[in-house]
Amino acid sequence: MKFFEKVNDFIEKALRAITVVMMLVLVFTVFIEVFVRNVLKKPIIWSTEVAIICFIWLVFLGSAIAVRSRRHYIVELIPMHYVKTNLVFDIIADLASFALLYIMSINGIKFAKMGMIRYTTALSLPQTVMFAAIPVSGFIMASFNIEQLVKNVTRLKDIMTGKIKVEGVDILESNRAING
Length: 180
What we know:
The protein has six helices and no strands. The chain is elongated. The two termini are 37 Å apart. The model is unreliable at 175-180 (pLDDT under 50). By secondary structure, it is mostly helical. The chain has one domain.
């Protein structure tokens, strides 16, 4: 697992560097486009496409980073001090995420294949350049999700076997005590 974490660490660092560069390109391109259009009264034809491509990749790669750091939408159903119960819900969410990531990746591959025969207007690039962000980020998210799932299962196992102590009574324990 340590090797897998190191690989994911490397991927995350690379994604962070790529997103910073893409954000700089996006901001610079939009700034130049606005300046040239308003001051020189001549639009730059390709700038919108560059900005859109950067934005699409930023959204999907940023989402992958958010999956790794658990910064995506989280709905707190049960208070945080119910550690075991929350871990069970986290494991269920991790498993459900695989289904969504599978659908996202498979359909992203279909979009990327369709984009091979369609080209952007100004840059004449295959639209695959844009659509490839979907399956690439889907596979990266799946890798990060595997890591999260293994950590959650290991932590729950350690808590249940007593390797890790948790303060207070958990819903799982109180239900066991009630049901005998």
